[in-house]
Design goal:
single chain; alpha+beta; Aminopeptidase; 7-stranded mixed beta sheet; 4 helices; binds coenzyme A
Length: 173
């Protein structure tokens, strides 16, 4: 198994992986046009030419990036694909010289070994626009984790009417 940067022909497989985890609010749905537009955010893991896992690094700026849309086919779990994805996304964050990587998750135990720690702070530029389309937006149970110093700067304007949750945010990666 290997992790590699995603290319446009991977978009359909990525959508299928994400779709399988949206009904329970684990991941946010991503449309095909959205995936094509953001395909450079994604890495995939292939096993014998089949895409068995995907994940994305969304860049907010040098101060912050977010790991999201991580999913591995149920049949391929436990083989190390999830680890390959996180490592590849963290390598990309280093290449981009991002100082802090965040993730919003219900499985903190999966991310802790990579150096992520739980934070109760709100994150500059983690815009809660995504929350608006999350089925769990009124009962968010995700845990915010960061790897690296909490950013102090903010580059994007806040969205009117979107309040930042105190403990967790996101509502699907
Ligand atoms: C989470 C997920 C990506 C893990 O993928 P995977 O390929 O099974 O993970 P790996 O085989 O690389 O496991 C790496 C390590 O994480 C651990 N791990 C796997 N799933 C875990 C979980 N749900 N909670 C805590 N630890 C987990 C493994 O035991 C392994 O630990 P080890 O190094 O001590 O053996 C996969 O279970 C998945 O797609 N889940 C559904 C979607 C999801 O929850 N995505 C994350 C949203 S934040």
């Amino acid at each position: 198994m290997d992790a590699r940067s995603a290319i446009l022909p991977d978009a359909v497989a990525i959508r299928a992986l994400i779709d399988a985890h949206t009904s329970d609010g684990t991941l946010l749905p991503r449309s095909l046009p959205e995936l094509y537009e953001n395909i450079r955010d994604f890495v995939v893991v292939e096993d014998d030419g089949v895409v068995v896992g995907c994940g994305a690094l969304h860049l907010y700026g040098e101060h912050l990036a977010e790991i999201r849309s991580i999913a591995v086919m149920p049949e391929a779990r436990g083989w190390g694909a999830g680890r390959l994805l996180v490592r590849a996304l963290l390598r990309e964050s280093l290449r981009q010289q991002v100082s802090c990587v965040c993730v919003f998750t219900r499985i903190p135990g999966f991310f802790a070994p990579f150096g992520f720690v739980v934070t109760h702070e709100t994150l500059p530029d983690k815009l809660y626009k995504d929350c608006r389309r999350c089925a769990r937006r009124h009962a968010c149970d995700e845990i915010a984790m960061i790897r690296g110093p909490l950013p102090e700067t903010e580059v994007a304007p806040r969205l009117a009417g979107i309040r930042r949750p105190i403990v967790a945010a996101g509502g699907g990666l």
